[in-house]
């Protein structure tokens, strides 16, 4: 493997970047408003929020975020960590029950260099996966086929979350 060295980039890499202001944050804007459907908010808990990804990688792609606008893990209070992780666990179970995926990709991108599109507000991605869900479309034509509209997914989640937490396996 060849390596390219660019030591002059060190100052860019080590310079602190300012997080997005709360007004520029779609999660905070959605939380401030009351129209959860318009903002794709499927669930609000005391410490977290579940948002449908407006640009999903796969069917059922959700974002789990703390309610507070914080961009670093060390900024979270213990109760916020617990709430977001319990919500993440709950939503994996709900997706398992409703959509029967074969697995999930779950991840957190910290900072723009790591792929965070909203680096100022932490959010975990849950991406349901099915065996064989990667087909020729993304490879040949840079197109991803999503089989369910965001409205249909929102309705499915809203109906399920309204009945409580008796998740069956």
How is this structure best summarized?
This protein is an alpha+beta fold.
Notable traits:
single chain; 169 residues; alpha+beta; HIT family, subunit A; five-stranded antiparallel β-sheet; 15% strand
Describe this structure in words.
The protein is of the alpha+beta class and 169 residues long. It has a single domain, classed as HIT-like (HIT family, subunit A, 2-Layer Sandwich), CATH 3.30.428.10. Helices cover 31% and strands 15% of the residues. The protein has five helices and five strands, in the order H-H-E-E-E-H-E-E-H-H. It has helices at residues 10-14, 26-32, 78-99, 136-141, 150-162; strands at residues 41-44, 48-52, 62-66, 103-108, 124-129. Strands 1-2-3-5-4 form a five-stranded antiparallel β-sheet, sandwiched between helices. A hairpin with a 3-residue loop joins strand 1 and strand 2. It is globular and about 45 Å long. The model has no long low-confidence stretch (mean pLDDT 84).
